[in-house]
Fold:
Amino acid sequence: MPTYDYLCNHCGHRFEEFQNINDDPIRLCPICENESVRRLISPGNGFIFKGSGFYTTDYRSESYKKDKEKAEKSANPESNSSESKKKEKSKPTKMAAKS
Structure:
């Protein structure tokens, strides 16, 4: 059941009420007993989704990430060949020993 925020327009009293979603809004102020209470729109609490499958990038296993990288590499063979050429160029070479 959600918690609703209320404000009395007459005395300014602000309060929360734990109600069923189907219940009618409260109209009577618990302090001044005037019927000028209105329900406020509150930001509420955020949802926290835990477990697999809620987000495509969050909470993924390492094996899934590795499989996805392999699939991306096989889908773009041009980038793989250019990356391997870059790696070859950047490899240090052994210098001939001076005698």
